[in-house]
Amino acid sequence: MTTATGAPVLADLPVGRTAEWTFSISDADMDTFAALSGDHSPLHTDEAFAVARGYEGRLVHGALLSAQLSRLVGMEMPGPNGMTVGFTMSFPKPVYVDRPVTVRAEIIEASEAASMIVMKVQMRSDDRLVAKGRVEAIVRA
Fold first, then answer.
1. Hey, what's the torsion of the CAs at 11, 16, 21, 25, to 10 degrees?
2. pLDDT (tens digit, 9 = 90+) per residue, 71-88?
3. Which domains does the chain possess?
4. C-alpha to C-alpha distance for 17 and 11, rounded to whole angstroms
C-alpha cells in the first residue's frame, strides 16, 4: 500500500526490509563541510598532518557519514513520508577521502501504534566496518 504520491506507508515497511547503496566523499565535499561546520581539524583538512599521525590520508568527518542517514529516511526507508526522530552512530574505523562506503540499513522494529520504524545501520569501506548505528523514524501518510 502506498499513498497517492506513491510514497510507502508503514504497511510497506516490514521488519527485515533493507536498503543499500554506495557513496564516496570527495576533497571538495570535505572542504565544503569544514567551511559549513567550522571543523577545520587538520586530521580532516591536511593530508600530511593525517599521514604523520599514522593514517592513510585525510579522515572523513563522522558527521558526513551520518548525513547519509538523512538520505536513508528521506529517500529510502520510509521515504517522503518519513522524518528522523533520533539516531546514534559510532565510528570504529576511519574513512578516507574518495574511498567507496557502502551503507546497509535494515528495519528491526516497526510500530503501528507509534507510526515508527527503527533501523540498524552499518557502513563498510575497504571490507571494514567503519560506522554503525540505529535510526528511529516516524512515518506519516
1. 100
2. 999 999 999 889 999 999
3. 10-139 (3.10.129.10)
4. 11
